[in-house]
Amino acid sequence: MQGAAHTLLSHGSMIRNAVLKHVRVVSRPTVFSRLMSVSSARMEEHGFESTTIADILKAKGKSADGSWLWCTTDDSVYDAVKSMTQHNVGALVVVKPGEQKSIAGIITERDYLRKIIVQGRSSKSTKVGDIMTEENKLITVTPDTKVLKAMQLMTDNRIRHIPVINDTGMMGMVSIGDVVRAVVSEHREELDRLNAFIQGGY
């Protein structure tokens, strides 16, 4: 999935540059300049690469009401992994008992494999707090973070899940799959707009 993310980043830029180059080649300079001045404001309204993490949360039906999956530092790793399996997710946000809005860390399938299975530890007697990635080592985003920025953070740091926080605390979590789907959708919409521009739809 990380390779796909890198491919989408470079592929999107190549497509956009190729289409714009094509426009410059086939359009007469005076006509192109006039069209650009007339349509630039409209193009700006759409805001290429403007999708934010808040848009993803909204599409997923997640909001600041705490409707995201979590466990506590005192839960057993077994219970945490069972919850992941039941909800078909690869990670859970970890909070301190009684403090659902205060993020303590994150536990992922990778933590389970590396720190429980490989080391031969018991998932039923090990607490989540003993193997989680702690809050001070977490990479997070805000609702205003652009999707492409989030993708870059995830691919650069080789992570598949990233918590979303704001000034009041935890808002949700997005996966690399969520981000890739958003980028693909945005590039598709941008190509449609460039197509309409070339054909005089703007």
TrEMBL record:
Keywords: CBS domain. Transmembrane segments: none annotated. It comes from Punica granatum. This is CBS domain-containing protein. Residues 64-123, 132-190 form the CBS domain. PROSITE patterns: CBS (PS51371). Signal peptide: none annotated. InterPro entries: CBS_dom, CBS_dom_sf, CBSX3_CBS_dom, Diverse_CBS-Domain.
